[in-house]
UniProtKB/TrEMBL annotation:
Its cofactor is FMN; Mg(2+). InterPro entries: CoaB-like_sf, CoaBC, DNA/pantothenate-metab_flavo_C, Flavin_trans-like, Flavoprotein. Residues 7-177 form the Flavoprotein domain. Keywords: Decarboxylase, Flavoprotein, FMN, Ligase, Lyase, Magnesium, Metal-binding, Multifunctional enzyme. The gene is coaBC. Pathway: Cofactor biosynthesis; coenzyme A biosynthesis; CoA from (R)-pantothenate: step 3/5; Cofactor biosynthesis; coenzyme A biosynthesis; CoA from (R)-pantothenate: step 2/5. One of its GO terms (cellular component) is phosphopantothenoylcysteine decarboxylase complex. SUPFAM superfamilies: CoaB-like (SSF102645), Homo-oligomeric flavin-containing Cys decarboxylases, HFCD (SSF52507). It comes from Cohnella candidum. Residues 1-191 are annotated as: Phosphopantothenoylcysteine decarboxylase. It comes from the Bacteria. This is Coenzyme A biosynthesis bifunctional protein CoaBC.
Length: 407
């Protein structure tokens, strides 16, 4: 059977030069069995004709919200209700801005506002537009609402620039749609909080203490949770990696910032993953001005940071009637994995601890792979052999979802 048989997809095309690529996308979705209803903005019809899309989708194309052909239904509501998924490709900066702000002034944006189905947005625009703070803010706003982005690619843009902004390949968008509609969704309806990266503890305005965490494992967990259907908030400390699309990103610096950001969200999330490398100590004094050199030695006094994972455990005990998040901790060790991991699990009252021996090749900081042992209150739950961090993340979520459902 074709993978999208029985699925109805509303494909919204907005007015950018990449609109012509939407024809390939439409044709691919139809060939995978989907029933595709195309809506084009006025601008899109300047780049490609509705007749092309009508022929490919084998349905009339909607362009005008007032052009009601069937008196029995209100078309934008009817299509919004029928959709299993809405795709906007290409999405211009304008349509993204309208979506983020709830503006409904044409057939596409009105249908988007009426739709309760998941939405995939594939942006395409000039690199400076894509990097404009207004667009970034709009994208983050939509991501926080659960809109999934298929990020634009980098290359030669139609405007002559080379940079990021080129519509993702139709194949990639079709695959994201198929994954969304047919993939496993063990976290559907769940809200999860993932922390990632290494905290930054400031000494003075130009110096700080941090660690080698790359953020890759946390990002893989956020991405896997998103694909498993969760609404994801990623609390992100220092990292050089780009966070995944389709998740709400909250930037923090220090352990104290992260502590505040996590605790503020407790009671409203179903799971918390502490993949961040949190500094255990911070400088006792944060100097407002750059420290000038003086003597031959300099002693820096450090004081203990709050233990965030432990604070979550304490919060759960202090709020028995509230929505208690399933907590997953991490333990990066260089030996005695089981002893340290089970000790941390008990001390920090988490539901699962993912331990890795960072001295092993292919495990730990900076790598794209990991080797992990997952411990629960009963002891070793599973040893995950050397795998891509994304695969490790999927397995962790599968184990967590089973336990969350049981509880
Ligand atoms: N953690 C935390 N807050 C801290 C320190 C650690 O939330 N201040 C979390 C980490 O994010 C991780 C888990 O606790 O999920 C274990 O971190 P780790 O540094 O291995 O544990 P520590 O308790 O700091 O133990 P030690 O450094 O002595 O090994």
């Amino acid at each position: 059977m074709k993978p999208l048989t029985g699925k109805t997809i509303v494909l919204g095309i907005s007015g950018g030069i990449a609109a012509y690529k939407a024809a390939t996308l439409c044709s691919r979705l139809v060939s995978w069995g989907a029933s595709v209803r195309v809506i084009m903005t006025e601008g899109a019809t300047r780049f490609i004709t509705p007749l092309t899309l009508q022929t490919l989708s084998r349905h009339p194309v909607a362009t005008d919200v007032f052009d009601e052909r069937d008196a029995a239904v209100v078309q934008h509501i009817d299509w919004a209700d029928a959709a299993d998924l809405v795709i906007v490709a290409p999405a211009t900066a304008n349509v993204i801005g309208k979506m983020a702000n709830g503006i409904a002034d044409d057939m596409l944006t009105t249908t988007l506002l009426a739709a309760t189905a998941p939405i995939i947005v594939a942006p395409a625009m000039n690199v400076h537009m894509w990097e404009h703070p207004a667009v970034i803010e709009n994208v983050n706003k939509l991501a926080a609402r659960g809109v999934r982005f298929v990020e634009p690619g980098t290359g030669q843009l139609a405007c002559g620039y080379v940079g990021k902004g080129r519509l993702a390949e139709p194949e990639e968008i079709a695959e994201a749609a198929a994954a969304w509609l047919t993939g496993p969704r063990p976290l559907a309806g769940r809200k999860v909080l993932v922390t990632a990266g290494g905290t930054v503890e400031r000494i003075d305005p130009v110096r700080y203490i941090t660690n080698d965490s790359s953020g890759k494992m946390g990002f893989a967990l956020a991405e896997a949770a998103r694909d498993y259907g969760a609404e994801v908030t990623l609390i992100c400390a220092k990292t050089d990696e780009k966070p995944p699309g389709g998740v709400e990103v909250v930037r923090v610096q220090s352990a104290a910032d992260m502590h505040e950001a996590v605790l503020r969200r407790l009671g409203a999330v179903d799971a918390v993953v502490k993949a961040a490398a949190v500094a255990d100590y911070r400088p006792a004094v944060r100097h407002d001005a750059k420290i000038k050199k003086s003597g031959e030695t300099l002693t820096l006094e450090l004081v203990r940071n709050p233990d965030i994972l432990q604070a979550i455990g304490e919060w759960k005990e202090a709020h028995p009637g509230e929505r208690a998040p399933f907590t997953i901790g991490f333990a990066a060790e260089t030996g005695d994995l089981e002893k340290y991991a089970t000790d941390k699990l008990a001390r920090k009252k988490c539901d699962l601890i993912v331990a890795n021996d960072v001295s092993q090749p292919g495990a730990g900081f900076g790598t794209d792979t990991n080797i992990a042992s997952v411990f629960g209150p009963e002891g070793l739950v599973e040893s995950i052999p050397l795998s891509a961090k994304r695969q490790v993340a999927e397995r962790i979520w599968q184990l967590a979802a089973e336990r969350m459902n049981r509880a």
